Amino acid sequence: MIWPALFGTGLGLAAGAGLNAYAVLLVYGGIVRLFPEEYPGALGQLLGSTPALIGFAVMFLLEFFADKIPGLDHFWDLLQTVVRPLAGAVLAIASVNPSGDSPLLAAVAGGSGGGVALAAHFLKSATRLTSTALTGGVANVALSFAEDVVAFLQALVSIFLPLLSLVLVAALAGLFVLSVPQIARSVNLFGRRRSEAGRIG
């Protein structure tokens, strides 16, 4: 039962990181800071250190505002295409292989965590592109608030209810597979509308 729980925490944190990496890093780092005996690994202790928490807080505030400005939110998402999967991989490794004694386990955790975070990131980005195309970005602020809340809740569920988190990650994987055609259409729709606007101008 220990491995499903560990992967439930690691992959659940990675899924949340795909929406808002800094929110999840703040929650995880804060929990490590409060309960250091439960997170003895060097990587976890690093994420719970004072400089790391300050950095996560600053970046969270930056994302909080940048992600709620139509137009800028898409540029920010583009920048986070690297950050969110990387954060997901680090969180998964810290959760699944905290002692760092198994390179193979770390590779499996990091790869799967990065993949889950990337899938969540693509779903977020596609939803935002669709919202922009259909509402001119009016709904993006509400979407951003919702994503922030979901990221925080997902982090807490991953830490305290890891088996439930594993179920949610499986549901995310299924949703991602079903949404691949919609993601492609959303990106194409956004690009087509932009090119049409350029021709009109």
Q: How is the biggest beta sheet arranged? A: none
Categorize the overall geometry: globular
Could you report the average pLDDT, rounded to the nearest whole number? 88
- The domain tally reads 1
Number of strands: 0
Low-confidence residue ranges: none
Question: Structural class of the secondary structure composition?
Answer: mainly alpha
- The residue fraction in helices comes out at over 70%
Distance between the termini: 61 Å
Order of helices and strands: HHHHHHH
Classify the beta-strand content into a percent band. Answer: under 5%
The radius of gyration is 17 Å
Number of helices: 7
Quick tags:
201 residues; mainly alpha; 87% helix
SSE blueprint and pairings:
Layout: H1 2-34, H2 42-47, H3 50-66, H4 72-96, H5 103-135, H6 140-160, H7 162-200
Helix pairs in contact: 1-3, 1-4, 1-5, 1-6, 1-7, 4-5, 5-7, 6-7
Descriptive account of the structure:
The protein is an all-alpha fold and 201 residues long. The protein has one domain (2-200). It has seven helices and no strands. The model has no long low-confidence stretch (mean pLDDT 88).
Brief account:
It is built from seven helices and no strands. By secondary structure, it is mainly alpha-helical. The protein has one domain.
